[in-house]
Each structure stands twice: as structure tokens, then as C-alpha cells.
């Protein structure tokens, strides 16, 4: 299984249906089980801004897993304000299905642009901390491996001085992902091919003629 347009269309429709107060479309893909992440970005005047990204490392049935995390990543990512209906026409949705989990030998035992990484470590106060970046993050940010690890340590909530002693405490799991991304316009185009599936509100939003209330 690789991530496909149908996965992203389903996530978009979950979010649109949430705002419209209607039932979402039925999924058009098999209900296989994968660890997964759903990522929302806002693209405006050529600038891309992350609006939410949450997932689960446990293998989940795709029908229920994507339904849950389409909303969770859009509305409940604590790093960002909740996505609103006003933003729909500027959004992209990415679905990542995670595969090939491996224990790394150390915190540098992974490849930028190939592996996502999950770190786990215990700080000086015996607190267990964890954090992850998907495979595309380090490459998009232009980070080295060490810079990526340091950023993950901060993401995990660690605020102390980062030294090699701290980095060498990290237990790292590397993984790969299959990812597919679509825009809101591509979502509209896809479901417009299905008679009776495209709501009037969605058409209005796609044409930027009117904003529906939250």
C-alpha cells in the first residue's frame, strides 16, 4: 500500500463535513492498517505554513484512523490555533503511511530525506521525553542530522543545555513513509466527478465567492 489521492480526499471531506454539519463521504480505499500521520498546510501568496500535523505510531485501520486524525490534526494540534472554515480554500492535506521501522545504532544512524525519526530519552530529572519528525522535515528545513536531533529535543520539551552527553542518551527509531499531498482545489475536482457528492457550500468556497461560518 502507498498513500494515494483517495486518502487525502477522504481527510479533506472529513474536515469539510465537520464545518458543514453533514455526514462525510464513504472511504474509497481498503481498510488496511498502518501507522499514519495527517498534515495540514496553508499556502497563501506562495508561502507555506504548517497548520497541524498529528498521527499515531500504532497501526490503525485506515478508515477510522484517517477519520480521527484528519480532525485531530486540524483542530487539536496544541502548537497552532484550530483551522477554521475560512482557511479551507488555502489548505493542502498530506497523508503519510509509515513503514520500515528500525532501531538505530545511535542518534546519527539515519539518512536525511529518507528516514523519519522518533527519539526517546530520559532527562536529568528522570522524565521520559519523546518527539518525532516525518522524513521530509529535515530536508525541507535544510538541517544537518545534529540540528535535527537538537530541534527534536526542544520539541520534546527539553529546555536544558544540549550537549553530546544529552544527544548520546537518545534512543532513536528510524522509519520511512509513503506520502501523498493534495490541494483543496484538487479535492473539489476529484469529488466533482461523482454525481451528487459536491455540496453547494464546497463549490462556494472553491470559487471564493462566500465564506461559510465556523
Automatic annotation (TrEMBL):
<protein>
    <submittedName>
        <fullName>AMMECR1 domain-containing protein</fullName>
    </submittedName>
</protein>
<dbReference type="InterPro" id="IPR036071">
    <property type="entry name" value="AMMECR1_dom_sf"/>
</dbReference>
<dbReference type="InterPro" id="IPR023473">
    <property type="entry name" value="AMMECR1"/>
</dbReference>
<feature type="domain" description="AMMECR1">
    <location>
        <begin position="1"/>
        <end position="191"/>
    </location>
</feature>
<dbReference type="InterPro" id="IPR002733">
    <property type="entry name" value="AMMECR1_domain"/>
</dbReference>
<dbReference type="Pfam" id="PF01871">
    <property type="entry name" value="AMMECR1"/>
</dbReference>
<dbReference type="InterPro" id="IPR027485">
    <property type="entry name" value="AMMECR1_N"/>
</dbReference>
Amino acid at each position: 500500500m502507498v498513500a494515494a489521492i483517495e486518502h487525502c480526499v477522504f481527510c479533506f471531506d472529513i474536515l469539510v463535513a465537520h464545518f458543514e454539519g453533514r455526514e462525510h463521504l464513504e472511504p474509497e480505499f481498503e481498510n488496511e492498517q498502518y501507522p499514519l500521520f495527517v498534515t495540514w498546510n496553508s499556502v497563501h501568496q506562495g508561502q507555506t505554513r504548517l497548520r497541524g500535523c498529528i498521527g499515531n505510531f500504532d497501526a490503525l485501520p485506515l478508515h477510522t484512523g484517517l477519520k480521527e486524525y484528519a480532525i485531530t490534526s486540524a483542530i487539536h494540534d496544541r502548537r497552532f490555533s484550530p483551522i477554521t472554515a475560512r482557511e479551507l480554500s488555502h489548505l493542502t492535506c498530506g497523508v503519510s503511511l509509515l513503514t520500515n521501522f528500525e532501531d538505530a545504532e545511535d542518534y546519527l544512524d539515519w539518512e536525511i530525506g529518507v528516514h523519519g525519526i522518533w527519539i526517546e530519552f530520559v532527562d536529568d530529572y528522570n522524565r521520559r521525553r519523546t518527539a518525532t519528525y516525518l522524513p521530509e522535515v529535515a530536508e525541507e528545513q535544510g538541517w544537518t542530522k545534529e540540528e535535527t536531533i537538537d530541534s527534536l529535543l526542544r520539541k520534546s520539551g527539553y529546555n536544558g543545555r544540549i550537549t553530546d552527553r544529552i544527544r548520546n542518551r537518545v534512543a532513536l527509531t528510524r522509519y520511512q513513509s509513503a506520502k501523498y499531498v493534495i490541494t483543496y482545489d484538487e479535492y473539489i475536482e476529484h469529488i466533482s466527478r461523482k454525481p451528487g457528492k459536491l455540496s453547494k457550500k464546497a463549490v462556494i468556497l472553491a470559487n471564493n465567492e462566500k465564506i461559510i461560518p465556523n
